[in-house]
Amino acid sequence: MVETKFTAEGKSKASTWQEALDLLVKGNNDFATGSTTHPERGHETLFAQYLKQYPFAGILGCADSRVVPELVFDVGIGDLFTCRIAGTVLSDAVIGSLEFAVEVLGVPLIVVMGHENCGAFRACMNPEHHPNVKGISWQIMPIIEECRSLPGDLLYNSILANARKVSQQLRTVGPILSQKVRSGEIKIIPAYHSLSTGLVTFFDVEL
C-alpha cells in the first residue's frame, strides 16, 4: 500500500505515476463507499506547506459545482494541482498551468476527467438555447458530431471522447509535456466521473 501521510520535511506522496494513480483510486473508492477520512485539511497542514507545495497529481476537470477533485479523491490540502474549466476543454492557460505542475512541481500524473451529465455538453447539444457557450462550443460541438454515429448514449460517448482527445493533445503539445511523456516520467490519462455512483473510471492506462 502506498504511504499517504504528509511529510513536513517536504516530499510528494507519490514519486511515480502508478503510485499517484493508486492513491487516486483508493481515495475515490473511499468517497464512493462513504468511507472518507477527509485527510489533512486543517490549518496545520496549510501552515506546513505555505512555503512550498508537493502535489502528487494534476487534475484537469470541469468547473461543474458537483465535481470537486479533492472531495472525489478524498485528499487534503496540497495533494492535487487542479485546473477546472467548463467542459474540460483546453486553452493556452490550461496547458501552461499543467506544464508548470509537471516542470516546476514534479507532478508525475495528469488526469483529464470528464463527468456524467455535463452541463457544458448538454448546452452544446442545444446551442440555439445557449448562445453564451461559444467560448467552449467550438471545441465540444465537433466531438459531439463525431460521436453521433456511435452506438450507445451520445452524451456519455461525447464526454469520454473529449477526455480522450484532450489527453492525447496534452501528450503531444509543446516540448515539456511531450518529452516527459515519451521518456516515461509522466502519464496523462482520461477518466470519467459518475455522479450517480461517485466512482471514477480511468481509461487508456496502458498508454
Rounded radius of gyration (Å): 17 Å
Largest sheet: 5 strands, mixed
The percent of residues in helical segments reads: 40-55%
* Relative strand content: 5-15%
Tally of strands: 5
Flag low-confidence runs.
Answer: 1-8
Topology order in helix (H) and strand (E) letters: HHEHEHEHHHHEE
Helix count from the secondary structure assignment: 8
Mean pLDDT score: 89
Per CATH, the superfamily is Carbonic anhydrase
Query: What structural class results from the helix and strand content?
Result: alpha/beta
Distance between the termini: 23 Å
Shape: globular
Structure characterization notes:
- This protein is of the alpha/beta class.
- Strand 1 (57-61), helix 3 and strand 2 (80-84) form a beta-alpha-beta unit.
- The radius of gyration is 17 Å and the shape is globular.
- Mean pLDDT is 89; it is low at 1-8.
- The protein has a single domain, classed as Carbonic anhydrase (Beta-carbonic Anhydrase, Chain A).
- It contains 8 helices and 5 strands.
- 43% of the residues lie in helices and 13% in strands.
- It has a 5-stranded mixed sheet with strand order 2-1-3-4-5, sandwiched between helices.
Secondary-structure map:
Elements: H1 17-33, H2 43-48, E1 57-61, H3 69-72, E2 80-84, H4 92-103, E3 109-115, H5 119-125, H6 134-147, H7 154-172, H8 175-183, E4 187-193, E5 200-202
Parallel strand pairs: 1-2, 1-3, 3-4
Antiparallel strand pairs: 4-5
